[in-house]
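Running log. JK asked me to keep both predictions on one page so they can be read side by side. First protein, sequence followed by its tokens:
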Amino acid sequence: QVQLVESGGGLVQAGGSLRLSCAASGSAFRFNVMGWYRQAPGKQRDLVATITSGGAQTYADSVKGRFTISGDNAKNTVYLQMNSLKPEDTAVYYCRMTTWRDYWGQGTQVTVAS
């Protein structure tokens, strides 16, 4: 059974940094795409950043220049370095892995205090 385990969330002051990690276990396949999504209270889940097995990255406009995604395809692991955090970045952050199907993590809370 495939499991995605996220870590690295927490409480940080505005302007601070956090690094999220997501490791997938139990998969016989390497990822095609891994990424991070976030959902704030009362809002839909939105894309933050994705990375393909070839290293191509995409970012939401709201995080460009502040967040950096990286990944290790051989280990089915993805990271999200978040700098210059803003209160509007507060959300539950979810990891997603796509092989021949999609898998989601349980989410990790990121809270940015003003």
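And the second, directly underneath as requested:
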Amino acid sequence: VQLVESGGGLVQPGGSLRLSCVVSENIFSFNVMGWYRRAPGNLRELVATMTNNGYTNVIDAVKGRFTISGDNGKNTMYLQMNSLKPEDTAVYYCSVYSSGTYYWGQGTQVTVSS
């Protein structure tokens, strides 16, 4: 399974970005899809998840600002990020999980700075 993220970049506080993750297989064949991030000096943390029956969840720090979604026809999952804050600066990774195995993308840098 291969995952390729895109959509990161430099954005001013209050701005928006949409991250994309193209998966080499049908995304809804996996039990769970998710986005994680790792800020400098921090451990990787879970940001948002989506199950293959459409249930979604995000962490409190991004609630109301970030939305996870998927397009099965394009084998792509998304993370829409609005009202970005400097503390959202991190490398963002997409991941899928099935049968005890996690698969990861290479990561995409998001920098929120004026």
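Observation for JK regarding the second prediction: The chain is about 0% helix and 55% strand.
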